[in-house]
Amino acid sequence: MKVLFIIGYPHVYAGSQKQLSALISRLPEGYEATVLLSREGIVAERMRADGFRVMILPLSDKLDTFGKALIGTSFLERLKLLFVDVRKYTNKVKRLIREEDFDILFCNDPRSVILHGPAKWLTGKKMVAQLHTEDAIGGVFWKAFEFFPDRFALISQAVGKCLSPKAREKAKVIYPGIPDVRPSGNAPEKYVAFKNKGGLIVGIFSSVIPFKGFHHLINALKQVQQRNPSLSFRCISCGDFPEEEKDYQNWIREMAEKEIPDTMDFLGFQGNPYGFMELCDVIVLPSVKEETIHIAGKERRVRGSEGLPTVILEGMRMGKVLVASDVAGVPEEIEDGKTGYLVPPSQPEALGVRLEKVLLDKDIRTGIGLRARTEIVKKFSYENYLQGFLELFEGLAH
To answer: At 273, which CATH number?
Structure first.
């Protein structure tokens, strides 16, 4: 069976892309996988490094935009995109599908469904769409997203809430497996030395973008420092810096330097972050659900886009304490007070109180970490993850 795996965001390599790579690598004999992207970049590099066949099919400049830019266009602009840019791209995709004779199109996000749905419809091929977040884009684009796929694969129960009742009839929850968390020993010696002297490390492993809540983490850590001036800890951030969020990233760096000087290190993207995770005493995910922030005098509306964060699975598998916002599918991963801690989103005070409790009590860190490692493997496995998709593929092929 020939499956075309389509990724709509070629410049972001995060949890959903990691999970897709894990799925492709586990496909049994008889499956032939190809990854389709609109441009070269970090995703193409990583997929090739994993040994997968990668094809590049460029979009027009007007279609090759991100950050929901197309949603804000006028009706006339959308019509022009539809009859000129989308039509041209659809013809290219249609030729590719027929030349390669793919059996199934697997779309890793709503963007890839919207861009490749017309070609799917014209060629009569089957389509599976994976939904990773509960952030419904609404309007005509969301209607298109729900129309084209034959089946939906939901990463959590929570993300299914954004689908219409009719679309939910085509949906199936398939929990991901737990990544192979093998520390690489790549953590800088200065952090090892800091730990050896009794220092504690707080880790955040995500792209530096607004909905990940870095601003709330900084404010929470400031409170911890103010209440515990003798507590020795550092915060490390491992994650990429998407170009479109430079204003936010500059704001966050300035905030960290001002509010918690000499405490937070931004280390950028780490291909294997597990050496850093191993050093952490607590891993935090302060994601936002919906709020308004102000950057450089401008108001910015922020909406969360979590689904079932991979970093939580990774951290729990390593026996770490996770403190995370109670959003999306996070409660499906963490049992509050037993395998980690949930805090209300956008409330740095609550986040600070919980982090303080964890940092000050080694017994809590040890006990919660051990329970997290034990419980997480019962619910999330690559065997179940693979079997869930094989059932979808086989069901569509017959």
So the answer is: 3.40.50.2000
Query: Token pair 């995703």 is at which residue?
Result: 43
Same domain, 82 and 125: yes
Pairing relationship of beta strands 290-295 and 298-303 according to DSSP bridges? antiparallel
Rounded to an integer, what distance in angstroms lies between the CA atom of residue 39 and that of residue 59? 8
Helices 362-379 + 310-317 axis angle, to 10: 110
Q: Which amino acid is at 350?
A: A
Sign of CA dihedral 163, 103, 27, 14: negative
Q: Which residues contact 317 (CB under 8 A, 6 or more apart)?
A: 178, 179, 181, 373, 376, 377
182 located within any domain: no
Residue 181 lies in a domain: no
Q: Please choose, from the candidates 96, 105, 100, 154, the residue with its C-alpha nearest in 3D space to the C-alpha of residue 127.
A: 105
Exposed, middle or buried, 31 (CB in 10 Å: 0-12/13-18/19+)? middle
Tell me, yes or no, whether 157 and 282 share the same domain.
no
* Cβ-based neighbour number of residue 29 at 10 Å: 5
Name the DSSP class of 179.
Answer: P
12: phi then psi, degrees, rounded to nearest 5: -125, 120
Q: What is the pTM of this model?
A: 0.81
Contact 8, 108 (CB under 8 A): yes
Task: Give pLDDT tens digits along the chain (398 positions).
Answer: 999 999 999 988 877 898 899 999 999 999 999 999 999 999 999 999 999 999 999 998 877 776 555 555 565 666 666 667 888 999 999 999 999 999 999 999 999 999 999 999 999 999 999 998 876 666 778 888 999 999 999 999 999 988 999 999 999 999 998 866 776 666 788 999 999 999 999 999 999 999 999 999 999 999 999 999 999 999 999 999 988 899 999 999 999 999 999 999 999 988 888 899 999 999 999 999 999 999 988 899 998 888 899 899 999 999 999 999 999 999 999 999 999 999 999 999 999 999 999 999 999 999 999 999 988 888 898 899 999 999 999 999 87
Residue 287: strand, helix, or coil:
coil
